[in-house]
Design goal:
Elements (H helix, E strand, L loop, with lengths): L4 H28 L22 H6 L12 H19 L19 H23 L3 E2 L2 E2 L6 H22 L4 E3 L6 E3 L4 H13 L10 H19 L3 H19 L10 H18 L6 H4 L1 H20 L9 H7 L4 H24 L1
Helix pairs in contact: 1-3, 1-8, 3-8, 3-9, 4-5, 4-9, 5-6, 6-9, 7-8, 7-9, 7-13
Length: about 350
């Protein structure tokens, strides 16, 4: 087992190095082309126009964030792609018995999550681009808020369906493991809608990208946990892919601890959250996803709770949603929120790993 450690560690180191090297050129491109939103953010979890003048919301989403470039997530999945390309080139020149160390692409383990990362990342890039340049009207409407939220959901459902069909028909998987037992929960054909629901739930947590360093640290810990689970399950290709993603996120985080040089944007959050759900199925630990990814769950639940409460009861549950902005509104500093989220992420990631491996 431990002979496979280099296969997991080397991709993480190389991806980190590639991303670090790219950052000066990447950041220069972002700032030269002013790739930031052209207007202030609106409250994403309400349909009530009065909330646009909510003093807490205005204070949190101030003008300064308007001039911080977006599409930083390209650095993450782009560096992963470059690493895969470098590994492929190296594998052509090393002895055959060493090639496996430099190749973590496989149909059964990494093809689907990598497909999801790239496709979702590209769709997120389109969304970010529309938010940056979509202020002028095209075909009679403005795209300053990016892709319509309902269309976003439909796109995510389409990606999830591809994954669900791949698992069900290609991999012949229709059940999931129940933690702390040797039992399995069989879904049959209903595995397909269950898969879609999990992916949608993971996607809904993408609004955690709201404070400098928050999403990067949380996602690095979560992907690190799934790399560990995959490794001890013998899924070394998945472990290597997760480790490579961690390397890319850490490089992103290096330049995005407060104050952020650029935001992850939809291209990062859409790609990483959807891929995370798929990896949880590949590692057969999907029921542990809510524990390992507890900050993402809290973010998603707080937004949905706020929306439902305001729509059905006309009242707020939180001063500002998602939850991390509520903490900010009641007086917590941004560094305190970020650090506490990282601490909780680490604790629950360890708990999740222990439960899965027992």
């Amino acid at each position: 087992m431990f002979s496979e450690v280099p296969k997991v560690i080397i991709p993480a180191i190389l991806t980190f190095a590639v991303a670090i090297i790219l950052v000066p050129f990447f950041a220069d491109f972002l700032y030269k082309n002013r790739l930031w939103k052209r207007r202030a953010r609106k409250d994403e979890v309400t349909t009530n126009p009065e909330d646009e003048i909510n003093p807490d919301f205005k204070r949190i989403h101030n003008d300064a964030e308007q001039h911080t470039p977006r599409i930083g997530g390209v650095l993450i999945w782009g560096s992963v792609l470059i690493t895969i390309g470098i590994f492929w080139i190296i594998s052509q020149f090393v002895p055959e018995n060493y090639r496996e160390i430099f190749d973590f692409m496989s149909r059964g383990q990494t093809a689907l999550p990598l497909f999801a990362l790239i496709i979702a990342g590209m769709i997120g890039l389109v969304d970010d681009t529309l938010q940056i340049f979509g202020g002028s009207k095209v075909f009679g409407r403005s795209f300053a808020d990016g892709i319509n939220r309902y269309y976003r959901v439909l796109i995510v459902i389409a990606i999830a369906l591809v994954g669900a069909l791949w698992f069900y028909f290609k991999l012949d998987i229709s059940s999931i493991a129940i933690p702390l037992t040797h039992a399995r929960l069989e879904f049959g054909i209903f595995f397909i809608p269950f898969f879609v629901i999990v992916v949608l739930g993971s996607f809904s947590s993408s609004v955690i990208d709201g404070i400098d360093g928050l999403s990067g640290g949380v996602l690095a810990i979560i992907y690190g946990a799934f790399a560990t689970i995959a490794y001890f399950y013998g899924l070394y290709d998945v472990a290597a892919l997760c480790a490579a993603i961690v390397g890319g996120i850490l490089a992103f985080l290096w330049f995005n601890v407060p104050p952020a040089r650029f935001y992850m944007g939809e291209t990062g959050m859409l790609g990483l959250t959807i891929t995370l759900a798929i990896i949880s199925f590949i590692t057969d630990s999907v029921l542990m996803l809510p524990i390992i990814a507890i900050p993402l769950v809290a973010t998603s639940v707080s937004s949905l709770t706020q929306l439902a409460s305001k729509r059905w009861f006309g009242k707020k549950v939180f001063r500002v949603a998602p939850l991390h902005h509520h903490f900010e509104a009641i007086g917590w500093s941004r560094p305190k929120i970020v650090m506490r989220y990282w601490i909780l992420s680490f604790i629950f990631a360890v708990i999740g790993i222990i439960i899965v491996l027992i």
